[in-house]
Amino acid sequence: MSSIPSTVGNELPNEHYLNATYGIRSWLLTTDHKRIALLYLASVTFFFFIGGAFATMIRIHLLTPDGYLVTPETYNKLFTMHGVAMIFFFLIPSIPAVLGNFLIPLMIGAKDLAFPKINLLSWYIYLIGGCFVLYSFSTGGLDTGWTFYTPLSSVYSNSAVTPAVIGIFINGFSSILTGLNFIVTIHTMRAPGMTWFRLPLFVWAHYATSVIFILGTPVIAITLLLAGLERMFHLGFFNPVLGGDPILFQHLFWFYSHPAVYIMILPAMGVISEIIPTFARKPIFGYSFIAGSSIAIAVIGFFVWAHHMFLTGESSYAALTFSLLSYLVAIPSAVKVFNWTSTLYKGSISYDTPMLYALGFIGLFLIGGLTGLFLACLGLDIHIHDTYFVVAHFHYIMVGGAVMGYVGGLHFWWPKITGRLYPEAMARIAAVTLFVGFNLTFFPQFILGYLGMPRRYHSYPPEFQVLNVMSTAGASILALGYLLPMIYLIWSMRYGRIAGRNPWPATGLEWATDSPPLTENFDKTPEVTWEPYDYSNRPDLGLEVGQPSLAPAHGDD
Amino acid sequence: MVWQVTEQVEEERRVHRTGELFGQFETMDQQRESASLGMWVFLVTEVLFFGGMFMTYTLNRSTYPGIFAEASRSIRLSLGAINTVVLIGSSLTMAMAVWASQAGKKKLIPLFLIGTLALGTVFLGIKAVEYHDKYVEHHIPGPSFSFEPGADVATNAHAQLFFSLYFAMTGLHALHMIIGAGLLLWLLRESLRGRFTPQYNTPVELVGLYWHFVDIVWIFLFPLLYLIDRH
Q1: Tell me, what's the ipTM?
Q2: How crowded is residue A29: how many other Cβ atoms within 10 Å of its Cβ?
């Protein structure tokens, strides 16, 4: 292990987790966290394309003010199913269950997660939940909005709500078990010398995410259980006709679903915190503040939920409090953005693909985060509540933030996952395409919303058509930006250049083992003697004191 | 030298090949600590799981205090009180089973487990009697629900809300009891095989934690459902 790894190797290691065993059983019954991560990768990609197909139909429908593609009822189902597929079955599991699953044991120097069988179980639970939701989609779909507000969802909707609610209820346990596994793993499985403040920030971000999984998910589970019981047995928990309280449903729903936004963005922030120092060739600025801000976001995130409900007639004191608390989330978020920017300052920056995604993330998250402050402002929220402004805002966070982080992270760790590099030039083109397509899709929606176009309507006044056409045009570019990586990443699994252990090079423990790693991850349990993101004192990686900064991994290809 | 494996770890690896250590762990201590932390984290999740329901109940109770009090008086306090004693008793026998496994009293473990199982079954039996009472009184929410003869529509609806929550909360609790009973049966089989020793008794300890948690949920359910406004 003490030999200096070459930047780019010539051949894959003889034995690694992908060729350790063969056959379909060796995958479906695997307890290897790396293989389970790949199972998740395949399944979340499947749901991403299902959700993407619905989004495509929505955007095509909105090309014209009257919308000729689908009926209004179908339109309601399209945006509902888009939200359900994307949020519960793509965004929430994407980074934690794919990248987190693959990387956390590697990053902390463990052989696996603490509970490998539970890890596999959580994938199966995800699949069972997914089957219920697909059943709902294919037997008429559902039209309640992904928020399942009662009594529409529990009494009045004539669509397949029950199987979808059951599916999401089941899927929640997949999240809970993943979070439980991560928390225990991070507490008990760290290698000798891997102290809490030597953990990569990716791991800190996942710890914070897991806390939300553990505390938030059971609440949405019980809420949907009650709503489902109400629908199946005509009970009245949330039905005002029978004395129930529909606002209570909203409180319970957002108690989970607002922190769920941080489930989506925190892991992406963890990815960015790994990419930025690697391609700026500098230790990250303010390590402990970035680590602490992840925890702060997770904690404060639990106390802001009622800002989704300013217009439900909640008391003005409650609204004032939740508005103030919502502003507070901006502080740890800004801490991160400023620290990333400071890391870039005087860095030796190279614009490899992961870095393009990271820089794109910072810009888009900044816009998404600042517009969040507009919405947290009581007076302004009355004007832009339930308009396209909200749609644009959360897509900047979820797509511009979480998905950018996910795709960037996939590129960054692709050499570790497959042992091969993706084609760099193509990947840069895709990253720029994504960025342009994304902004063209969603920036016009800020303007539309500010001008008063409500969300979830199947038609709009003719004067909004130009901006809607821009948005649809952007969506087609965006779709191209997603299809390109899908194609060349699959291509590179067979034909990509051999990456070697540490192609960038980066300082994390995951780069100190083979690419792809052994099933047991490391030949011997590593011992950590260095501080995180130290680019000046790592002779084992060829990063010695006084050396000039390294050239970018890809050079000029 | 950066990469080192201490002799102790090598020794533990040998244990792993011959004993109860799972492959992902380095030492028995680490394995024990992980399992125990995992159970505690799971119980935190469970607290929030029941918490959402408690919240729903509390809010409705404060909205309709009169009817909820009246409806709550229709469930039999004596059965609830007996069940509380039974369940606390089962926690005692469970704690004794954990003690027996840690102290190496191999023959006592199954006895205490059977005791716990028996008390748990008594609890579920009494619960079934209570449910049957409600069935006879037309207090099961649904089309045939009728709180009392001549009750107006609103009273009926609000009383039905109480019973919906009563059945949801006690039903979910009973489901946890049934899962716990399944775990106890598994422990019983393993303990009869003499698997639990002072060195290895984590499963007994963890099922014990789970059982006590389910007990504690009842300790909150009992006053919430039976005792408030009972004069």
Answers
A1: 0.91
A2: 12
